[in-house]
Design goal:
By secondary structure, the protein is of the alpha/beta class. It folds into three domains: about 5-60, Arc Repressor Mutant, subunit A, CATH 1.10.10; about 65-205, no CATH class; about 215-320, VSR Endonuclease (Endonuclease, Chain A, 3-Layer(aba) Sandwich). The chain is about 50% helix and about 20% strand. It has a five-stranded mixed beta sheet with strand order 6-5-4-8-7.
């Protein structure tokens, strides 16, 4: 069969208003097993999970972290029973920033839920959750699902995840209103269990003033350096305009900015945002401020980044002397 013809047929039959379709939905729309098999073989459709499909053009346009969310939604649409989503899956369902945490679906229950124990991409955590540790939320896929609470999610990620990954999630959870007191109490109640020391270290490192994944990761780079701790989100007036610096050393008149794309692309047209950023920086430079600019690639080379920051701090100290 011709790829274009199959593509046109699938597009015509694809259920309106959805991006992930189940086998049952496609069958009801007239896209039966034979057409599904051919469409997957020709890569008109991508089977992202048993019983869940996405059009290839949609899948290929997604960023890796968006594909991870789709994989979780596919599990929600196809799973039997009512599992409790936890750890990094719960973080995604709560809308928290999740960085470099893998695509696995995490479930917590006293035992392996019936019908969900064979999938290689599902991680089961066998634990009886205390009362109040889980609730229900409406997922992006549509159905309401059971999910661990915001605080429990942070604690679980802190116990089982990497340090930086857990800090990114925890920083965002604090901005969303998670209670540090509640999280500390949860960790105390887990004394003797795996990952408790790691969780305490993560909680001690959290700071809700970091407003993005990049800022959280940059803060962790700075935390191990032999330099004064910066002020986060320092507000500076320049010619009647307020400027908010990601990290600043006021005594040195030194600012460090993490330049993620979101800062420029999420709120205003790019040209307007870049022009405003250059204008603010020029005003502050006229007042004697120096700048260090950090981008994603810099975080992949932390030792090089630290050398840059040490040099900038030394130059700022000489200028301030």
């Amino acid at each position: 069969m011709d790829v274009q013809k199959i593509g046109a047929r699938v597009a015509k039959l694809w259920p309106s208003g959805i991006m992930i379709a189940t086998t049952a939905q496609l069958d009801e729309a007239g896209c039966g097993d034979r057409l599904l098999t051919v469409a997957v073989r020709m890569r008109v459709l991508v089977r992202i999970r048993r019983g869940a499909y996405v059009r290839a053009e949609t899948w290929d346009a997604l960023k890796p972290w968006e594909q991870s969310k789709f994989l979780l939604m596919a599990h929600i649409l196809t799973v039997s029973g009512h599992p409790v989503y936890s750890h990094f899956s719960a973080a995604r369902l709560h809308g928290l920033d999740v960085w470099n945490c893998g695509d696995e679906v995490h479930l917590t229950s006293p035992s392996t839920p019936s019908g969900t124990g064979v999938a290689a991409d599902v991680v089961h955590h066998h634990l009886q959750l205390p009362a109040g540790s889980a609730g229900r939320i409406t997922s992006a896929a549509g159905p309401r699902v059971r999910v661990t609470s915001l605080e429990r999610t942070v604690v679980d990620c802190a116990r089982f995840g990497g340090f930086a990954q857990a800090v990114v999630i925890g920083d965002h959870a604090l901005r969303r209103g998670a209670s540090m007191e509640t999280m500390m109490a949860m960790v105390s109640g887990l004394t003797g269990r795996r990952g408790v020391k790691r969780a305490r270290r993560v909680l001690a490192a959290l700071n809700e003033a970091s407003e993005s994944v990049g800022e959280s990761r940059t803060r962790l780079v700075l935390a191990v350096m032999d330099i004064p701790a910066p002020v986060l989100q320092l507000r500076i007036q320049a010619n009647g305009t307020e400027y908010r610096a990601d990290f600043a050393w006021p005594e040195l008149k030194l600012i460090l900015e993490f330049d993620g794309q979101g800062k420029y692309f999420n709120y205003r047209p790019t040209a307007e945002a870049l022009l405003a950023e250059r204008r603010r920086e020029s005003l502050l430079v006229e007042q004697g401020w120096r700048f260090i600019r950090v981008v994603w690639d810099d975080l992949a080379r932390p030792e090089d980044l630290r050398r840059r920051i040490y040099r900038a701090v030394a130059e700022a100290r000489r200028a301030a002397a």
